[in-house]
Amino acid sequence: MNNYINRELSWLDFNLRVLEEAMDHEHPILERMKFLSITASNLDEFFMVRVAGLKEQSDSKTVGADSCGTSPKQQLSGVVQRAHEFMAKQYNCYNRSILPMLKKCGIVILKREELNKEQSEFAAKYFEKVIYPVLTPLAIDSSRPFPLLLNKSLNLAIKLRDKENKFALVQVPSILPRFLELPSKDNRAFILLENAIIGQLHTLFEPLKIAAVCPFRITRDADLDIDEDSSDLLLAIEKSIKKRKKGHPVRLEINPKTDKETKDFLIEELLVSSKDIIEQNGPLDLTFCMKFAYLEGLEKLRERSVVPCTPDDFADCEDIFEHIKERDRLVHHPYESFDCVIKMISDAAIDPDVLAIKQTLYRVSGRSPIIEALMKAAENGKQVTVLVELKARFDEENNIQWAKKLENAGCHVIYGVPGLKTHCKMLLVVRKEHGEIRRYVHMSTGNYNDSTARLYTDIGMFTCKSAFGSDASALFNMITGFSKPPAWKKLLVAPYNMRNEIIKLIENEIELAKQGVYAKIIIKVNSLVDVKTIDKLYEASQAGVHICLIVRGICCLRAGVEGLSENITVISIVGKLLEHSRIFYFENAGVSKIFMGSADLMPRNLDRRIETIFPVEEPLLKERLVETLEIIQSDTVKARKMESDGKYERIDRRGKLPVNSQEVLASGRNREGDAWKH
Asked: Rounded to an integer, what distance in angstroms lies between the CA atom of residue 234 and that of residue 243?
């Protein structure tokens, strides 16, 4: 057995855990549809980035084997096979579980042949008035070549009956809703947009007869190739985004009943191989399930959202700066409101004593109050510096728009550091108080995004301690200027000292264990891939250090292997909220050291990104984080535990009360007592 688990297969296992939530009958049906949609969206990105990357590597003779000793070609073969198996499970879930349960709840998604006369007439009128004006039929012949089809677009290939077969294309317009509600007396009935179009296609091609119609969907290589040596990074990224739409196809999804001639036509025109074709037994692009899950009037078929409360650390807070000056403050989203973060920036924007605001932005929401506050601050004469990371994958266009707006408002905008993504989450407010300069810092595990702050579990800390302020200033100066990395007082910063410092903290636990002192490590991250860190954790296990790893997604470490990792437990929490916080706990002979930050334990985070991990030093805050970790470790409902073969199994509940850690944290029971521990 190899000591490491392949990262691509580990990711597919994670997506399978998400799919298990879609299969879980304990969830309301629309909640299950959300999870199914997430698996489809995840898989799209997996093909666009990871599978595309493996294809490129397998064509290159310079790329060697991974940590498991597997070549890119071998990885690609195994990944594609597993992905095919996964997609079969997706559609099995949709056809055999989701649709029947929807029907029980009085909701039906009808096929064309299932429409009654009234519904057929309604669909025909909708086609004539709404769909028809938007459609553009594209004939394919010698004078009209096969068009460039957008990545992830849903299309119809039409074979027309003539003296010889002719082909045409119709793109299913993404600007229209994917499903249409039909009149129905007994239930709520819907038809998917592509089926409504197929039912009326004859009106587009008369007098020719339609011999066959094939819905298909193409997924392209979407990993940007950015020229970071360009004199204008923004322009270089804008050019790369345009190229993304033309990326080489890596997956062609079709219906199993597609006739051979149409299939051969698509293979020839799209330049795909038979290995890239996936026959989906149902509607293509299951991401439509997310919008379907939010249909009005079906609230009883969804779980209630987590309602953020006012953070304990900001109760009765009027002057946020005076409040932070009293002591460090901690806020756990989405259980506690993100409003205090917005308040810090908004208040700073209009505070006459604030001289400067500096902030990193990786992903922000569509109508961001953070951006609005920064623009207002610049208009009020504050020195505002914003690092907008233009290389944030699939958010590049959004970030370019925000960068331009910030610049127009008078902010100094930095587009990132050549060769590195800036992924750290930091806000610095410089304020003049009684003739002296005081720096207020907010550091977080998550993005400055008010939308995802309601869906992702993240933790932020506010402080005005001088050492943190000094490090924050040094970090921004390093990013915006040419200054060398300083000797950091508090922060662990990638790609400079983070990996080495984490390894030193693990080594300290190893030495304590060898001395007979109880040694313990708890690490909560999204992904664990870095081989150097994994090897050090194996060494710690063998020295007798007790290790719990809470890893939501990819974990290349193999837990519970005798002689290697028998003292390591790996659990993964997949629940209603996306686990996103990163916490690092080291027992340190009873004087615990706790860190939080933006970094996962992956080579990309440790070597190719600017990341920060910061210590939490206030006893009250440390106590709260320890309690949070205990709650997560006690989860018996949403936790899966890795077995020594790398497979994940649900926690054995025998003799245990059901504990859903996210529900416990949302309800605040951890502050009312320790009922969750029983």
From this structure: 15
